[in-house]
Design a protein that fits this description.
Structural class: mainly alpha
Order of helices and strands: HHHHHHHHHHHHH
Radius of gyration: 22 Å
Shape: elongated
Number of strands: 0
Number of helices: 13
Oligomer: single chain
Largest sheet: none
Length: 209
Amino acid sequence: LLQAIVIHRAGSRYYYRKICNYSLKIKAYKDAIFYSRKAIALNPKNASAHADLARIYHKAGQTQKAIASYNEAIHLRPQGYGYSLALANLLRKAGQLRKAASLYRFVLKHSKDGRIIYDSALQAINILLPLKATKPLEGELQTLAEQNPRELSYFQALAELYQRQGRMKEYNIAYLRAAATVDQKSQVYKQLAEVAQEQGDIDKTIIYL
């Protein structure tokens, strides 16, 4: 591979990444880091190259360097929400819970992918609920639901928060609001019916079905 880099210098990053991948397979993390940094030197503004290095640092157990590399990737490409989520997961494992929650909230506010929005909201809820710090998140979700009335994920996230807090009246209101605006009405009513059945409310179960 090193000979190929010399011969095909224009495509060196590709070969450096091949060496990195091989080094990772054999857990030669020092070599993987060395050649990943070589790849970055060819194009320092390539966000994915910095994210690659972050993943290598993480596998090598160098958490702080992994965090720094993810931050650089995010700086270069703020819309690369995969980088933000990867960093949030890393920060969470490192015990930096509030920083992780902030990143999850950043993603759910800016992503247009319903699954990513909902998953990010769940991660934020998981962190903030034990800390009794969900009020700002609740406000953000309410605003986002009002601004994007056809996006079910915001209503689902709100409903999940309310259910886990035992606020079943607000839970039902969130889903009923969703039923009036989203396209996935059958999905909404099915969820309401399941909860009504769990609560032993047969009349509402029949209505929602």
